[in-house]
Amino acid sequence: MMISTAELSELTEIVRIPSPAPKPQALAHDGEHVWLGSWETGHIYGIIPSQGRVFERIAAPGKPVGATTVGDELRFICAENGDDDNRFIRRYVPGHGFKTQAIPCPDDTGSFLAYDGEHLWLSQRFNKRVLELDPAYRVVRTVDIGEQILGMTWADDRLYVVAWMGKDRGGSRIAYVEPRASHPELVFVAQAPFVAVSLARDGDRFWTHDQRANEIVAFHI
Length: 221
Hints:
Elements: E1 12-18, E2 24-29, E3 34-38, E4 43-48, E5 53-59, E6 63-70, E7 73-80, E8 86-93, E9 97-104, E10 113-115, E11 120-124, E12 129-133, E13 139-144, E14 148-155, E15 158-164, E16 172-177, E17 187-191, E18 196-201, E19 206-210, E20 215-220
Antiparallel strand pairs: 1-20, 2-3, 3-4, 4-5, 6-7, 7-8, 8-9, 10-11, 11-12, 12-13, 14-15, 15-16, 16-17, 18-19, 19-20
């Protein structure tokens, strides 16, 4: 049963880490490190969260929008070609940087990524939907979310998202959907007291950005 947003509790913050760069945007967690992409600097930062220390920094081929871990690697969505804002999926290998292959996002539109252990999932913010991609990056499933998506990550069999409801409807809400259900439905589970951008998970905790405060936030629901 869908939970009314009026009944939601706030997410439970665990820790805040200063962002190493302004406008933190892309975010992923590999189980040990936080990976952050800054919209302002166009760089990727590998961070040791217990210390808040940057151990890796590299320029992205465009502005990093969304990220997820895929095994020992990462995938980023990058906004490229200046005002044309073309969106591509890029492969990143920690310690080695970005590889040359650039996969165009479907309809040249993509914001955030998640990985279910087999397939990538890509969100299209203003289309209010997520797409499941096969290993050849072809769309094999489309799930309508009904709200703008500001981040997403997999946890067990659920795809968790940051749903942007707009200022008049309550701002950022954490919700999940079971995309392989016969009738996927968005279920709200928590509210964020700030504009949350991006979503990642390290096994026990969720991670997001408080972009206006330039901080990375770990939380429980």
